[in-house]
C-alpha cells in the first residue's frame, strides 16, 4: 500500500451549528419532515423528547459537573418536548480551528451517488431512556460497508489489516479550504438511496501522535452513549501524515461506561423529567434553559415574544395529529412538579438546583430499570 499523503491543516470557516446555519428559521424542521416523509404513520404522540445530540450532550455534561455554557429552547408540541440548541447567532463560526478534524474525514470518506456535494449527514436515532422515548438528531461521519468488524481492530504503519476502504482514500487526496454555505430560501425534500443500519455507523476523531498513550476513547464515551454509535475510528497523525488509524467496536465500552456512571445518569434522568414537566406547566408551553460558565446551576427563563417557535404552524399541526391532549403529561404516571407549576405562574427566572428540582426519586435506580424513577419509592 502506498504511503499516506500528507494532509493540509483545516482551513476556512466552520459553523458551530450547521443545521441552524442552513435553515435558521426552524433548524429541527428538516429532521421532522424527513421522518414524516419516510414514515407517514410515524407515532408522533409516542415521542417524549425530540432533540439533537448537542443539546442532550450539554445537559449530560452539566449533571456530570463539566462547566460549559449552553442555551436550549424547550417547547411542548402535542405530547412531545422539543429541545432546540441555541447559539448566539445561527451563523456563528468556530474560532481558531486547527488540526485535521475536518480535512481527514473529507479525505478518507466519500459521498455516494445522489448525495455528492452535501455538507453534512444527519441521522435520527430513537431510543428509550428513563421511560422517555427520545428521538435524537445525530451528525454521522460515515459508515463501514465491510462489517462485522473485530472487537478492536488496530493497525499501525502499512499493515493491510486496517479497513482499506478508509485508508486507501487517503492516497493522493487533495483537500481544498472549506467554504460553508449559508441558508437557502425554502426547504426542498428529495428521496433516494438506501437505509444504512445503525450498526454500520462510525464516529471519527483525529489526534496528534503525541497523544497515543492517552485514553482518547474514554473521553469520547459520553458522546457515543448519547449518539448510540457502535464504532469509533481514531486517526493519529504526525504533522498531517496518518500512519496509525484504529477502528474500534465500542458497544461494550459504552455499556460499561453507562454502568460506571449510574449516579450521573440518575441526575440526567431527573433533569430531563423536570424540564419536560416545567414546559407542560408553563403558560406558554416553552422556555429557555441557560447555563452560564462558572455557575453550579441552570436558569429557566421566559422567551421574548419575538423568538420563533421550533416548528412552523402547519408542521406543528401535523405532529399533534393523533396525539393526546397537548397539556397531558408525556408519561401518564408522571405528575407535574409543584415547583415547576408555581414558578411558571410567577413568570420569573427559576434557578434549578439538585436539592429541589424534581419530585421523582432516581436515587435507587440504575441501568437495569432504565432509571424509571420508582425504585426508591
UniProtKB/TrEMBL annotation:
- The lineage's top-level taxon is Eukaryota
Question: What PANTHER family does the record tag this protein with?
Answer: PROTEIN CBG02620, START DOMAIN-CONTAINING PROTEIN
The name under which this protein is listed is Geranylgeranyl pyrophosphate synthetase
Q: Which organism is it from?
A: Aspergillus avenaceus
The upper taxonomy is: Eukaryota, Fungi, Dikarya, Ascomycota, Pezizomycotina
